[in-house]
Amino acid sequence: MINLFKIVSFLEGVSYILLLFIATPIKYMYDNPTYVKWLGMPHGLLFVAYIILAYFLWEPQKWSTKEFSIVCLLSLLPFGTFFVGKYLRNEYT
């Protein structure tokens, strides 16, 4: 499950960056909401998957409440999910 979480966290981060720095400026500068519509739903699904997977990894990863909160808060910051690897421990130790 840890590998799935790493993939989802990377994809969630990429979708968030695309949404914030490409789709949203196009929407407001060129009055074209198409890209926001295309990226909005996948980003939302990836965000929900990220939070659910983080919740299910909370106990196996032995995260404290503070660590779990940080992992969740990283999903709200641009580029934040790319740094979530710091909080992942090897599940076989």
Keywords:
membrane; 3 helices; about 90 residues; mainly alpha; about 70% helix
Describe the structure.
There is one protein chain. The longest helix is centred in the first third of the chain and has 29 residues, at 2-30. This protein has helices at 2-30, 34-58, 65-74. Helix 1 packs antiparallel against helix 2. It is built from three helices and no strands. Helices cover 69% and strands 0% of the residues. It has one domain (2-87). The mean pLDDT is 89. The radius of gyration is 15 Å and the shape is elongated. By secondary structure, it is mainly α.
Low-confidence stretches: none
Count of spatially separate domains: 1
Gyration radius, rounded:
15 Å
Number of helices, counting only DSSP H or I runs of 4 residues or more: 3
Q: Helical amount among residues, as a percent range?
A: 55-70%
End-to-end CA span: 15 Å
Order of helices and strands: HHH
Structural class: mainly alpha
- Tell me what portion of residues adopts beta-strand conformation: under 5%
User: Average pLDDT value?
Assistant: 89
Anisotropy-based shape: elongated
Subcellular location: Cell membrane
Keywords: Cell membrane, Membrane, Transmembrane, Transmembrane helix
Membrane topology: Multi-pass membrane protein
Pfam family, one: DUF3817
